[in-house]
Amino acid sequence: MVVEPPDRRGLRRITIHGKSVGSAWSLRELRKVLGRLGYPDDLDLDDRSRVHWRGGDSNCWPDDRGWRRHLVIGLMIVGLLGSIGLHFVIGWADALGALTFAQRLVGVLFLLAGVVQAAALPAVVDHWGRRQVRLSGALVLLGVLMALATTTLLLFLWLQEREFIRAVVVFLALWLWSLWALHVLVHEKVWRGIPHPRRFAAGVTVTATLTAVSLGYSILYQPIAAPLHFVLRADFGKPQADADSPYIHVPLKLYAKNAGGIPVYLVVDDYTVTGYMTEFARDGLGMEEWKTDEGDIEWSADAQAFARGLVPEIIASGQFQGPGSTLDIGEEFKMERVITLPKDTRFETLDAVLSFTFLRQDRGKLDDEIYADLSWVEADGGRCAPDDCGEYVIYHSRVRYNTNLINVTRKPRYVVAFWSPTEVTEGFVTSVNLTGREKSPSIEEMYGELDDGETRREAERYGLGWVSVNSEVSVKGLLKQAEQP
Question: Which residues cross the membrane (predicted)?
Fold first, then answer.
């Protein structure tokens, strides 16, 4: 039997008749190895005719500091487990639910990285143990490099917003752990066990490059490449009247089609019919009424030289499909409503407006459940008084970015839309969460909580846009058509 000299860790290899039978860190472990082979416990290990000691006799057992090895093993396993969980949390959602192929590919790559790190767990025990597998150190190095790359990317994305989230503590802890683990592995020069170190380095570089390109494509290129185009129509049909009836029925035909290359969510989709009352301005000075008494410009007002006092009044309003509904590529939707008008109406014109506030599905994804709160209905804790806050419906839902890397590095975002038949409807994306509040905020309170810079930035990030179409007709013309047989 030959007992080889201690290696750098104090481990001595044991061979019998030229065949390796194990290794030991102490005399006690050596006897355990021999006991498993059937040798007696009282075998004289100092008998030079039977045992040949190289690099020191039976008393030469350098302190292997077993507690330190076990501590390193424990820290390596804990760090790898945390990184595995992080990769699966990020990759699972993208691999199964991302809209584009590139985004799903990024999710699959993250899952594969988690699998590789899972394979590195037993390699940790082997590398700081008996080292029976030659590539165990290289496999641990690969897992640590993946953890370092991922946490660096996550911290970089987090620094773009610098919002305090609990997850950033995890990112920072894993990033520091990966630096420590890389230092330990470099100090031990684990690449010496790799058969072809250049090929190994090339493979790691190619994988990192493909991941970076796929991530950049999914976040930057794809949302910009596909065009947005909608076909909207709001047309008045031929009115119907009865000689014995004091009113007429005016059909309103609404139509919408997604003729672009991106499916969308409809955050706000409503129609409004407004009647305008005017007075004839014989002097032709109606154009002067585009300014208020304070001198401020009324951008929403209209001005005509021979029409004075264009007073608008909403006479009909409603929703098209409803907040949270979708309009896929090529999908179209039609609706017809009947507007009732008295024959002796003072309105000169009718204006129908169909408007959408939409969210691009290639940039964001709404939760399946859309919450709707009614400002005039009392709940636990009460509601804001309608006299103070107005009567409206408030819709809100969680919105998630289509790349889960962004979701885990930022505070949750929500889509919020107010709807009232007597006011202008709008929607926005914000970090203000309305779920679980005891009372609905007023529109003024809501705007007080919003950050204008944030809402503009979020609108651009999630592709929140607005499109509308309007149609105007003469009321006298409608009455004339109604009188015709």
Answer: 71-93, 105-125, 137-158, 164-186, 198-220
- Of 176, 179, 172, 177, nearest to 156 by C-alpha is 172
Tell me if 468 is assigned to some domain: no
Would you call 472 helix, strand, or coil by DSSP?
strand
Looking at the structure of the chain, the number of domains it has is 4
Each residue's pLDDT tens digit, 213-222: 655 555 554 5
Quote the CA–CA distance of 186 and 188 in Å, as a whole number: 5
First to last CA, the chain: 118
Same structural domain, 192 and 284: no
User: Do 96 and 200 lie in a common domain?
Assistant: yes
The helix/strand/coil state of 439 is coil
> If DSSP codes are grouped into helix, strand and coil, which group holds residue 305?
coil
134's CB contacts (< 8 A; 6+ apart) are 193, 195
Assess whether 152 and 102 both reside in one domain: yes
Which tokens hold the place of 105?
Answer: 């590919």
* pTM of the full structure: 0.72
Q: Report yes or no on 352 lying in a domain.
A: no
Say yes or no: 265 and 343 in one domain. Answer: yes
Q: Express each pLDDT in 123-136 by its tens digit.
A: 998 887 777 777 88
Q: Each residue of 431-479: pLDDT tens digit?
A: 777 766 655 565 666 666 666 777 788 888 888 888 999 999 998 888 8
**Residues whose CB is less than 8 angstroms from the CB of residue 35 and which lie 6 or more positions away in sequence, other chains included:** 41
Phi, psi of 254 (to 5 degrees): -110, 140
Antiparallel, parallel or unpaired: β 19-24 and 325-327:
unpaired
**What token pair was written down for 379?**
């709940």
Residue 144 one-letter amino acid: V
Do residues 23 and 13 lie in contact, with contact meaning Cβ atoms separated by under 8 Å?
yes
Question: Residue 461, class by beta-carbon neighbours within 10 Å (0-12 exposed, 13-18 middle, 19+ buried)?
Answer: middle
Burial of 265 (0-12, 13-18, 19+ CB in 10 A): buried
